[in-house]
Amino acid sequence: MSTAARAHDSSGQGSDESGGQLQGQGKSGGTQRFLDAIERLGNKVPHPALIFLALIIGVIVLSHVLHLTGASVTTDVGEPGSVPAVPDYEGGTTVPGYPHPPTGAVPDYHLERETITANSLLTGDGIRFIFTTAVQNFNDFGVVAVILVAMIGVGVAEEAGLIAALIRTMVKVAPRGAITFIIVLLGGISSVASDAGYLVLIPLGAAAFVSLGRHPLAGIAAAYASVSAAFFVNVLITPADGIITEVTNETIGLVAPGVTLNVTQNFFFSTASLVFCALVMTWVTERLLEPRLGRWDSSEAAEEAPAETVQTDEEVALQSRGLRMSLIWTLVAVVVVTLLTALPDAPLRNPETGEIFGSSPFMSSLLFIISMLFLAAGLGYGRGAQTLTGSTNVINAIVKTFNGLGGLIFLMLLIAQFIAYFNYSNISKLAATGLADLLESANIGALALLVGFILLVAVIDLIMPGVIPKWAILAPIFIPLFYRLGIAPQTVIAAYRVGDGPMNVITPLMVYLPFIVLVCQRYERRSGLGTVVSMMIPYTAIVLVTWIIFFVVWYLVGIPWGPGAPVHLN
Where is the composition biased (Low complexity) (predicted)? Predict the structure, then answer.
């Protein structure tokens, strides 16, 4: 499964026939009954594509009901005032072209009272909209292009084996006393290519703990928590960042057509959150989980293959050569980007102001640049380690990555239609305005609303772990709502990051849960689904609570979420 597929898939039911039915060492009584109920509920959740089909039908029907009932709201809307036009013609012709504002002019906005009504998708105009815009809706949905461009570099790096090699090397050279923190930090970073995080780091975490005389299940739990509970934070710009940004920009237009975000809107918060969560998960592992597990009895281990296949000397040599070549190719790519950006009048600077950050070609192309850096690193590793030899194999690696995105692209097609219908119907404006008026009259503070939003996302994550499907449903409602209440879109995304991760490690819908149960059974034959979930509950509870506190402090201090992304609306 590719990175993007992991980021957006919530169809895995997590009910493997072996681990799911085993009597593990998990807690019994009320806790076990609660987990069993969650598992039964989760197994009944349909495929995300079916969920969005149902949502599309629901929007169509609801739009007509609201239209028939005459639903409407009256609100103040900012309208641009007149701006002096500058003629763009020579001579004294009396037929000028369309007037336009002078360069740099910002019109004065004034409030006008406007009545918003529901547009039905079952009237003549609505039906014509459905039939005539289906292709254009998908064509205008920039998320698909973002996915394809981002996955070129990441897919080649993963297929070449670079991500797995980096994880192996860093675990091997990590200081003995810092091994837990290193594994957790690596797990967070590996979410850029999550297959490697789950399939390589989790077995390696167990093996590393065994080599140090520690309990292997603690290593599995630490690695699993790091890859999953903090999935949507990273020190790198990931494909999920690009997709979330594009979906957000689609919905900001409902209330602020001229406002757009870039992929760095949460970079500072994401980086700091990764380190913070790594420290918290390290503490949970060493102070809570390991004392509870006690000393590992090796006689409990299964007799099957070890958790991590031992590399031959030849494989180690090829891996080392591949890493050296990867570093060289990456440095060359960085030098090229630096020359295109840092020199005076460089093409990636803003041609008018000369700035690099903010409004510049460099920032607009950041996701493409990162993808190309991954591509260079992957090509260098593949050449050095002989895992990608020849241009045909490189193309095949990209094609293989794209092949794995078929289901996701179909899901994006449905999401594009859902957002378009949602926008056309004005349901989002009616809901956002009505809820905003209600919340304003209730005098609930912005911070309390954001904390409530985090908890809502956490609850939804139990039955829909995918990052993108959740956001595609929540963004059209909450981005306009919070924007009307004066809360910046980047602040809402930061809150979404906090709520999205911690529940991932206990939901039965996690697609890698059966694999993790099997890895546990290599070291303790009696392990089952209850074993894994009972180990992970402390991570979920403590990470969620402490991360919310971290978010609240960040918000109150007013640190920007990323470059040019303040906490509050200007």
Answer: 10-20
- E strand or H helix at 337, and its extent? helix 313-342
- Residue 345 backbone class (left: φ over 0; alpha: ψ -120 to 50; beta: rest): left
Task: Note the pLDDT tens digit of each residue in 32-83.
Answer: 566 556 545 655 667 778 888 998 999 999 999 999 998 887 765 544 455 4
Q: Please state, as a whole number, how many other Cβ atoms lie within 10 Å of the Cβ of residue 313.
A: 7
- Calculate the alpha carbon distances from 73 to 99, 115, 118, 427, 437 in Å: 33, 6, 9, 11, 10
- Taking a C-beta distance cutoff of 8 angstroms, is the pair 523, 318 a contact? no
Residues in the chain: 570
3-state DSSP assignment of residue 257: coil
Return the H-helix or E-strand segment holding 36: helix 30-43
Q: From the CB of residue 312, how many other CB atoms can be counted at a distance below 10 Å?
A: 9
Is the pTM here over 0.85, yes or no? Answer: no
8-state DSSP, 115: E
**pLDDT tens-place string over residues 78-103:** 444 554 444 443 333 333 332 333 33
Q: Which two tokens stand for residue 320?
A: 């080392």
Both tokens assigned to 252: 């900001």
Residue 305's region, left for phi above 0, alpha for psi from -120 to 50, else beta, is: beta
Q: Which two tokens stand for residue 312?
A: 């031959």
| Euclidean distance between CA atoms 140 and 133, whole angstroms | 10
The Cα 516–Cα 221 span in angstroms is 9
d(CA 141, CA 135): 10
Give the angle subtended at the CA of 560 by the CAs of 556 and 565, to the nearest 5°: 130
Please state, in angstroms and rounded to a whole number, the distance separating the CA atoms of residues 189 and 411. Answer: 26
